[in-house]
Design brief:
alpha/beta, Rossmann fold, three-stranded mixed β-sheet, 13 strands, 25% helix, globular
Length: 208
């Protein structure tokens, strides 16, 4: 892990910031929770967490003055970024949850779960589940095939470019549970709630 890492957890008023910060500190790094453009600009790595409504998330990124600096850091400066849950979904072009455009970093849409067996597969999808890796990534180093992660979500991402799919998870049908393109990473699951497996994943990201 690089001692030069300056990690910013982006605060746009949409969820689990302190739990992410505590988990980052648990793996031996430090991070600032901030929505100040100057602190985001100075970061060597970004984490975009989030829970809640897609349209609200997009509105708050713009309202807090984060939208432009976030796009510059990720798209132009190629700063590594990890989106978590809603934070990953915001990277898509649009969502069924609100008539607004997303960040558009992935050619992807966000849709609500459409399961046939509504008794067995409740929506939202809540609890522990496994992942199936679709390509090699440093983000998944030292994780076994039996690694389990914690999910809480009613919507999931659909990538039009299958090369962007990092992992899938089964819940009534296979859905995309992690994505990666160049410096941009996203997990539908919550590594900060996923005990040792989540710590390993966060440690891998911090060590990029």
């Amino acid at each position: 892990m690089s001692e030069k890492s300056n990690i910013c957890i982006i605060d746009y008023g949409m969820g689990n910031l302190r739990s992410v910060q505590r988990k980052v500190e648990r793996v031996g790094a430090s991070a600032v929770v901030s929505n100040r453009p100057e602190e985001i600009a100075g970061a060597t790595k970004l984490i975009l967490p989030g829970v809640g409504h897609f349209a609200n998330g997009i509105r708050k990124l713009k309202q807090y003055g984060i939208w432009d600096i976030l796009n510059m850091k990720v798209l132009e400066m190629k700063t590594p970024v990890l989106g978590i849950c809603l934070g990953m979904q915001l990277m898509a072009e649009k969502s069924e949850e609100g008539n607004v455009q997303g960040l558009g970093w992935f050619e992807a849409d966000v849709v609500r779960f459409s399961v046939e067996d509504k008794i067995r597969y409740k929506v939202p999808h809540i609890g522990w589940n496994t992942i199936v890796r679709k390509k090699t990534s440093v983000l998944l180093d030292h994780l076994t095939e039996t690694a389990m992660f914690y999910f809480v979500h009613s919507y999931h991402i659909i990538c039009r470019d299958t090369a962007d799919i990092l992992t899938t998870t089964e819940y009534g049908y296979p859905f995309t549970s992690a994505i990666q393109k160049e410096n941009i990473y996203g997990t539908q699951f919550h590594p900060e709630k996923s005990h040792d497996f989540g710590e390993t994943l966060l440690s891998n990201f911090i060590g990029l």
